[in-house]
Amino acid sequence: MSPSTPENALTELLALFQRAFKRGLRPHVRLLMARDPAMLERPWRPVCGRFDIARPGDPAPSESRPKGDVRLIEQDIHPSIFMARFSEAVQGKPLVIGDVEIPEHGMHSGWAVYRCADDWREWGSAWPCWAAWPMNQIPNRPHIGEPIEADGPFSAFADLDQLVQRVTAIGERDRRSIRYRSFYAVIWDYRGRIDRFFVNGTTLSVDVSPKNNSSLKLLVVAEALGEEPTSRVEQAPSTLELRMAHSIARAKAALRLDDEVLADAEAELQPSLAVGTTEPAPTEAMPAVVPTADDRVAFLRDPSCARSWLAISPS
Hints:
By secondary structure, the protein is mainly β. It has four helices and 18 strands. The protein folds into two domains: 183 residues, no CATH class; 119 residues, Immunoglobulin-like (Sandwich), CATH 2.60.40. 14% of the residues lie in helices and 36% in strands. Strands 4-1-2-11-8-7 form a six-stranded mixed β-sheet, sandwiched between helices. The chain has a four-stranded antiparallel β-sheet with strand order 15-14-17-18, with no helix packed on it. A three-stranded antiparallel β-sheet has the order 3-9-10. The longest helix has 17 residues.
């Protein structure tokens, strides 16, 4: 799904906030502040900020607590207070988080809203989500290139950007990304997800959550060289297994609620079946799966280990 246009994205985002609050989700704010050692006055300025709209306890508090010239602020906010402060900020007024007032935050601009149906872990979510960000970055963002001391599993970080990736749990490794230098929102969608998408030779296995929900429908298609494509549609899905005579070359799955795709997954395991073409480059949405020597290939989605997967980055 392409991001919404800046003209209507902010209206869409505010409506998404309201619907999420009606479902019992709550705002959790994560703000990283720093003092630039190169500046004489050394005021505290925002590095980046993240608004999670999720169930209480999601996301878990950051294990890393920076020290010295960097400060991490985490706070749960009542939905009505969050809406008031967010609305003021996008109108150009200071953003207030706890006892911190931020005059320059970059939120007074056009916004983009993006539905993450297969790449939610790149946004630090354990479920499909909507992600939203402003067109402007934080002005006068601090820059710290020296190691930063912290309490937690990592006693130090190489620089400010590595710390940002860890405390915000993003999977984005391109440090030019706006996620490193802006405020953004992640609205978790608990209606359905693909937990496991696993291809092993001639067999495709798919697990979903929630299980046996009559409102959900799972669509699966698999292709193998020398065979007609095989497909399956399952209402109220739980675990689906599809077998073919030859090794699977391409597989796709989509979890739907009526006409809406809640989550999808895709694997390209061998050169494309289309004549005269080769295997496409990996997309941002789903890493390509490369076969091993014994043709046992797998792509596994396991939300329970999403945080440890991100921590390797480090996140």
